[in-house]
Amino acid sequence: MANILVIDDESAILEVLGDILKDEGYNVFTAPDGIEGLRILESGSVDVVFLDLWLPVKGGMEVLEDIKSKWPNTEVIVISGHATVETAVKAIKLGAYDYLEKPLDFSRVTTIARNALRMEALRRENERLKKEHSIEDQMIGSTEGIMKIREIIRQSAPSESRIMILGENGTGKELVARMIHAGSLRASKPFVEVNCAAIPDNLIESELFGHEKGAFTGAVSRRRGKFEIADGGTLFLDEVADMSLDAQAKVLRAIQEMTFERVGGEEPVHVDVRIISATNKDLRREVEEGRFREDLYFRLNVIPIYVPPLRERKEDLFELIDYFYSRLSAGRDSSRKLPEFSPEAKDLLSGYGWPGNIRELKNFIERVTILADEPVVSAETAKYYLGESGSVLKTASPEKEYDGMKLTEARDLFEKRLVERRLEENSYNIARTAQALGVYPSNLHGKIKKYGIEIKK
Ligand SMILES: Nc1ncnc2c1ncn2[C@@H]1O[C@H](COP(=O)(O)OP(=O)(O)OP(=O)(O)O)[C@@H](O)[C@H]1O
Ligand SMILES: [Mg+2]
Prior knowledge:
Blueprint: E1 3-7, H1 11-23, E2 27-31, H2 34-42, E3 48-52, H3 60-70, E4 75-80, H4 85-93, E5 98-101, H5 106-133, H6 144-156, E6 163-166, H7 173-182, E7 191-195, H8 201-209, H9 226-229, E8 234-238, H10 245-257, E9 259-261, E10 268-270, E11 274-279, H11 283-288, H12 294-300, E12 303-306, H13 317-330, E13 340-341, H14 343-351, H15 357-371, E14 376-377, H16 379-386, H17 398-401, H18 407-425, H19 430-437, H20 441-451
Parallel strand pairs: 1-2, 1-3, 3-4, 4-5, 6-11, 6-12, 7-8, 8-11, 13-14
Antiparallel strand pairs: 9-10
Helix pairs in contact: 2-3, 13-15, 14-16, 18-19, 19-20
This protein binds adenosine-5'-triphosphate and magnesium ion (MG).
Adenosine-5'-triphosphate binds next to helix 7, helix 13 and helix 15.
């Protein structure tokens, strides 16, 4: 049964409209002014609003604006006894569905209500389809790490628990967050992302909590923050480690109490959001070193999900490549076949460290399909399209490799590799290599001996 709200200060109108609509089988709420009307809308179950433009306390146009900004899918039919074409046009421009003049023509009321409800249903359906479609959000992979993540997502998505997603750049942290939201009871409500690293310190508070008109220079109107926009849904705090300590304190309070004030405002705003956060930093270390609040860490990290880097799940590499290929070819002229990789190229891709993880792989595949003009991509071409990062082919993920080594060991290994690389780049010319490294040739000789480096040709 559809819910219709009538906002009018004339009790006679509320009564008559209410009766007509109830006769049609609708659930009817009434409000004598905009404030009360908005309060009823907050409950979240109103489909269509009949709104008088001439209201006490808060003007009808203003109420219309509020409704359209907060509940864009809700259709509003405006009513006014002071009808001029101008106000009608203005109301329609602000997003009103239709316009009724007083005295009301009751035969039109039911038709308009029916049409508006149909429109509202269409909008919702459209939104749902769009969302479903944009779930390119498929998680590919069959290695143990990915299976485990799928399992945790399946178990934790429907709960309300906070989740912290950890992993390097481009591993798929946002994808995991979106999947959790999509699998939750909040799926039809907004998924709102905030990149904490991208927002300057002085703006983060207003970004998260919104501000009142005039709160600071440039605050020309009231603005809702991400917490408010995410109400009922999920708030994804990306790069959460990059928030200032000051902002952390405010976020802590907001998630503890689900209440905050807009910047420059005093009225508490109450919301219901589920928090998912992500970072590529070692948060425990950030806590130890005093850059991240421990209490916030524990609040956010109820269920941790670690997304492993691509180099630790190489078995998924070709499955991912096939997947990106198929997605690229979906919108393509089928007469042009996508290039294949030669066995050598495949070896090269398997041996590569993929420091940019899945995002890098995806970009690489896009580059190859667009730019490579050979039907079989050779190792050279593949290397070429790996681009800049191709130069780190042999030293991918240095930090991991040095895990568990003593400082001197790690330093020696690094030095050995660097000397080897410079030698190779300078065709094993000692004088030039020494110059490139900024050491004396005798010193370079010493290192070559120390590390037993082979001087080719
Ligand atoms: N397992 C996967 N299967 C298919 N596509 C994936 C997978 N993991 C990631 N992707 C895709 O790779 C891209 C990068 O993923 P995403 O943005 O989620 O990574 P991220 O960890 O948030 O990266 P960053 O740290 O750079 O923000 C996205 O286009 C995503 O859809
Ligand atoms: Mg991300």
